[in-house]
């Protein structure tokens, strides 16, 4: 019987692998550039800070680091971190008007946020073992997910936290996979230190990291020398934070109080304990909704992997670190929110956990795409339970509070992506969100069972992410951008660093926050309670309501009107 002759497939040559590597690098580079430009387009309507007063605090600190005037910060002594202001401080080095400096901040944000794409690709290839095409598709999903993109449009720490988290997990995976190498240990320490420098969440991550390090040492997964090397840059970051704060001194004065009181009473007062549980649970539910249930699948796989390992130690313990980090930050955020129950109570405040969404959606698609991680249908029980029970409990909480004459706060900074997905512009819609999460999970599970549909499904998700951000730009970003953009330009009126400037106490919050930054050459302070400018003030900004009591008439104090806006109810006056 003749032997069957199979077609000859020559082995891939070194030149072929090199060419493919160059193509991948080109795709990632162009994807990163497109991501930067896309983020700049999304944020174009924003000319001044919109996330008050946190964003103002970071801009003031960055300005002070660059040698600018004094300013306030809403941070507390305990929670104060200087990493993000230090990063964007070069934008304020050149004495530019604030709007231009702020756009430079946007460029810095966009450049770092867009690094989510190559970092997600490397995680897909190295940690999850995905093939090139699937890893690229999954990386584009992670790089466009609204939870990670939105914050790059404003001057907040969250703009850089998502790629930092991906880089941290990538470094940890590399180190645990090669524990004898020094470079991975040092890179883990550097990134842990940067996370500490950027936000108080970094402190929680440091605590989780210490526990992880102790566990790895006990299990002899890493050596003592490597552990020590990783701690050196971390300690340097802690010291650097305090040194820069000392150098700034009182030029940035804090308005926040030392945390205590309400925060300490979270576990002794039933109302605060209820808010704590509700805040944590809502954030867990939120992550399942915006990932189409994939985060829940990833949590199941991570838990099973830690108990019954099927993959290598690097995968297992990196996934475990990610899970404990997510839980730790979620619990820490819930404690802070419960401590503020006297002043506010949020229906949803997902900002603190949004930084983990790109990682968990990448992990979830890896579960669907890779045979070694392929999840049985029963794994979907957890995300389904989270979505259904979470939606019902949240709806009950909203109704319970409303029946007692109260209302939970709800706004674009609590969950802008969820607000856009559910068209919940004026109210929280937990039932709609739950339905979206359940349908998305069912579709993803069914479609990806056919392996050739995995990449097309991811492409559809990317398109959905782009569409969500376009709607968000139209319905949220543009309106609030207009709200904090004044129709009066001080530079066009000849007002500049040579002028001493002040304002009356009756101007609107929007006008205050805009002109506070536009007066970049000195701290913007009000005149006395009688609204009478002292002799040294040459330019005044006042409320413009002719014929009404709140109107400030500069002519009565020897000032000449330069320009007024009836739309913004604001006027600029110069001493005659």
Automatic annotation (TrEMBL):
<feature type="transmembrane region" description="Helical">
    <location>
        <begin position="319"/>
        <end position="340"/>
    </location>
</feature>
<protein>
    <recommendedName>
        <fullName>Glycosyltransferase RgtA/B/C/D-like domain-containing protein</fullName>
    </recommendedName>
</protein>
<feature type="transmembrane region" description="Helical">
    <location>
        <begin position="229"/>
        <end position="249"/>
    </location>
</feature>
<feature type="transmembrane region" description="Helical">
    <location>
        <begin position="104"/>
        <end position="123"/>
    </location>
</feature>
<feature type="transmembrane region" description="Helical">
    <location>
        <begin position="428"/>
        <end position="446"/>
    </location>
</feature>
<feature type="transmembrane region" description="Helical">
    <location>
        <begin position="194"/>
        <end position="217"/>
    </location>
</feature>
<keyword id="KW-1133">Transmembrane helix</keyword>
<keyword id="KW-0812">Transmembrane</keyword>
<feature type="transmembrane region" description="Helical">
    <location>
        <begin position="284"/>
        <end position="307"/>
    </location>
</feature>
<feature type="transmembrane region" description="Helical">
    <location>
        <begin position="381"/>
        <end position="398"/>
    </location>
</feature>
<feature type="transmembrane region" description="Helical">
    <location>
        <begin position="352"/>
        <end position="369"/>
    </location>
</feature>
<keyword id="KW-0472">Membrane</keyword>
<feature type="transmembrane region" description="Helical">
    <location>
        <begin position="453"/>
        <end position="472"/>
    </location>
</feature>
<feature type="transmembrane region" description="Helical">
    <location>
        <begin position="135"/>
        <end position="154"/>
    </location>
</feature>
<feature type="transmembrane region" description="Helical">
    <location>
        <begin position="23"/>
        <end position="42"/>
    </location>
</feature>
């Amino acid at each position: 019987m003749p032997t069957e002759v199979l077609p000859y497939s020559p082995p891939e040559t070194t030149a072929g692998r090199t060419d493919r590597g160059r193509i991948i690098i080109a795709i990632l580079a162009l994807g990163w550039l497109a991501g930067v430009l896309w983020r700049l387009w999304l944020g174009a309507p924003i000319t001044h800070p919109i996330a008050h007063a946190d964003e103002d605090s970071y801009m003031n600190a960055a300005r002070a680091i660059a040698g600018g005037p004094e300013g306030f910060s809403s941070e507390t002594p305990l929670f104060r971190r200087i990493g993000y202001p230090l990063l964007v401080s070069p934008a304020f080095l050149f004495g530019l008007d604030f709007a231009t400096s702020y756009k430079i901040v946007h460029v810095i944000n966009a450049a770092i946020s867009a690094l989510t794409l190559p970092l997600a690709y490397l995680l897909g290839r190295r940690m999850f073992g995905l093939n090139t095409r699937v890893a690229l598709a999954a990386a584009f999903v992670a790089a466009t997910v609204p939870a990670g993109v939105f914050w790059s449009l404003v001057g907040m720490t969250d703009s850089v936290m998502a790629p930092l988290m991906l880089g941290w997990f990538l470094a940890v995976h590399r180190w645990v996979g090669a524990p004898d190498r020094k470079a991975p240990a040092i890179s883990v320490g550097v990134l842990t230190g940067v996370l500490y420098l950027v936000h108080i969440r970094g402190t929680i991550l440091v605590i989780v990291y210490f526990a992880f390090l102790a566990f790895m040492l006990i299990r002899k997964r890493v050596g003592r020398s490597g552990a020590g090397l990783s701690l050196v840059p971390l300690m340097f970051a802690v010291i650097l934070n305090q040194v820069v704060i000392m150098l700034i001194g009182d030029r940035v004065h804090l308005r926040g109080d030392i945390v205590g009181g309400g925060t300490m009473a979270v576990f002794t007062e039933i109302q605060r304990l209820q808010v704590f549980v509700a805040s944590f649970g809502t954030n867990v539910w939120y992550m399942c909704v915006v990932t189409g249930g994939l985060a829940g699948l990833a949590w199941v796989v991570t838990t099973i992997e830690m108990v019954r390992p099927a993959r290598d130690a690097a995968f297992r313990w990196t996934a475990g670190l990610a899970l404990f980090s997510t839980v730790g930050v979620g619990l820490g955020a819930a404690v802070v929110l419960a401590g503020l129950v006297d002043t506010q109570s949020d229906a949803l405040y997902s900002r603190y956990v949004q930084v983990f969404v790109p990682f968990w959606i990448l992990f979830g698609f890896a579960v669907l795409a890779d045979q070694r991680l392929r999840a049985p249908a029963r794994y979907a029980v957890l995300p389904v339970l989270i979505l259904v029970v979470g939606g019902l409990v949240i709806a009950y909480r909203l109704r319970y509070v409303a029946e007692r004459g109260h209302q939970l706060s709800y706004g674009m900074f609590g969950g802008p992506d969820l607000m856009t997905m559910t068209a919940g512009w004026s109210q929280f819609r937990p039932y709609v969100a739950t339905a979206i999460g359940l349908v998305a999970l069912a579709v993803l599970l069914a479609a990806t069972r056919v392996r050739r549909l995995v990449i097309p499904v991811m492409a559809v998700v990317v398109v959905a992410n782009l569409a969500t951000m376009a709607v968000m730009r139209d319905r949220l970003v543009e309106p609030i951008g207009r709200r904090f953009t004044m129709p009066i330009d001080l530079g066009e009126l000849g007002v500049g660093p040579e002028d001493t400037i002040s304002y009356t106490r009756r101007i609107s919050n929007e006008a205050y926050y805009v002109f506070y930054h536009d007066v970049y050459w000195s701290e913007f302070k009000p005149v006395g309670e009688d609204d009478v400018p002292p002799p040294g003030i040459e330019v005044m900004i006042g409320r413009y309501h002719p014929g009404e009591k709140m109107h400030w008439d500069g002519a009565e104090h020897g000032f000449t009107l330069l320009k007024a806006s009836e739309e913004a109810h604001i006027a600029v006056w110069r001493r005659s």
